[in-house]
Automatic annotation (TrEMBL):
This is 4-deoxy-L-threo-5-hexosulose-uronate ketol-isomerase. It comes from Pseudoalteromonas fuliginea. Signal peptide: none annotated. It is an enzyme of class 5 (isomerase). Its cofactor is Zn(2+).
Amino acid sequence: MSTEIESRYAVGPNEVKGYDTQQLRDEFLVDKLMQVDKIYWLYTHYERFMVGSAVPTAGALTLETVDNLKAAHFLNGRELGIINVGGRGTVTADNETFELNYKDALYIGKESKNVTFKSCDNTNPAKFYLNSAPAHHKYPNKRVTRNDANVLHLGALETSNERDINQMLINTVVKTCQLQMGLTELKPGSVWNTMPAHQHDRRNEVYFYFEIPEQQAVCHFMGEPTETRHLWIHNEQAVVSPAWSIHSGSGTQNYNFIWGMAGENLDYDDMDKYQPHELR
């Protein structure tokens, strides 16, 4: 079978206070992404959010339903967001085929039955990063390139956080039920993302880090603002961030990351911010 799935239940802030490093990694680190010729999923019980990947080389990969959903098709009651972080590829949803270049995104709406992933060059395969959330309405499929994105230029080199936030699958660009995704690119010399740190009490979030060189790493900070913890992240790994947790990181050099969210609303700015001097 070309699909692998794991499931993790939600945990609260009081439990996490007693976790050691390995327990933190077991609960929140996603380190099995981008397996060749496999669709991998992590099903979380935070907003029923799913994070996954598809890397086709030997042929097309088909989006199969999984036991967790108890549904005839994967997208019976879900929507799907895709961002390609590899070579050129195609995604076919029923009778529509979309070509995705590096850092292109695609939204696929509820009730799409036959979805396949394919690389255009198997020696330089596409790497499709996937997020999925429950959906109550069918919206049209739509490809979004970085030229289509709403771009926020934030931070400064002086504070080591100059970055471009490419808002791609958000409600000002494409209609979705609750899923939002985007891509943040840090400028050379900048290493801090998402500072000041914040929480989303009304949604969860997942960070997927990529373009981290082999000998480099990112330290991801999580936890309550006055009870922070950290995880060391390497290339093409992700971190699940519950509603009670901040999510911020600092790398040993600049890097990129994809953020994906789902929850109570589609207000991108719905966040509770904490300045650096407030963190513990």
